[in-house]
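job 3f2a | input accepted
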Amino acid sequence: MNGGSSGAVAIAAPRKSGIDVLQRMTRKILPYAGSVILGLLLWQFAASFLPGVVFASPARVFEHLVGAFASGELPIRFAHSVQHMILGMLLALLVGIPVGMIMGRSETAFHMLNPVVTAIFSIPSVAFVPFLIIWFGIFFEARVALVFVMAVFDIIITVTAGARNIEPRIIQAAKSFGASRRLTFTRVLLPASLPFLMTALRIGAIRSVNGMITAELFFAAVNLGEYMEDASAAFDSAAMLSVVFCLALFGLLIQELIKYAETRLLPWHVRD
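job 3f2a | predicted structure (272 res):
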């Protein structure tokens, strides 16, 4: 008998052909582009029935954006606004993820903290504005604090729900093999937690974008908030909708970047 034939037979993994990749891209890109085009058409349709001073058309908004970006005014204001958004979101993640994990994995902590978290979460975030003004003033620190408040409870609740749904049997399996607490956390709990941690990141990022513009409208009007207030005083709906449009694109970009990171980190979890 030939010795080579008695060895293990290597089975080549199927390669993705160019046609398969193109089909998958088409399946994703066409509906995505169709959604954007449909949204713009609906926007144009609604604008055709309203005066331009009330609701600007996409063409007018695009024209305003070209001028605002050419002058550099809108990008500079946007860059300044993003600063307190990023800081507030990072603080919310630093607090929300550990608290959510503790609540999710400890019944005692869950029963102690869940009523408080749920009660505070039910309060509209803008109701905290007067308190934040007293505690932090009306400038950068207050804006960071409002972003934090608007994002942290969503993160806590998402992480808690995910941590509580981790299968107990995988924890028991790790313990039965003699895994220490540290090893169980790093090799079992953390990988099992990644899907809902990414979900918490997506929710927290969008809530932070909401908090970014809300803070600039409710506290001292600066950056994008000042831009919108000046446009409102001049009845310039194109300028106001330009900011709204940029915020929508910014939120969409953040979501797509997180989804891309999720496909790289969790290919077994993300549906193709």
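job 3f2a | The chain has eleven helices and no strands.
job 3f2a | closed
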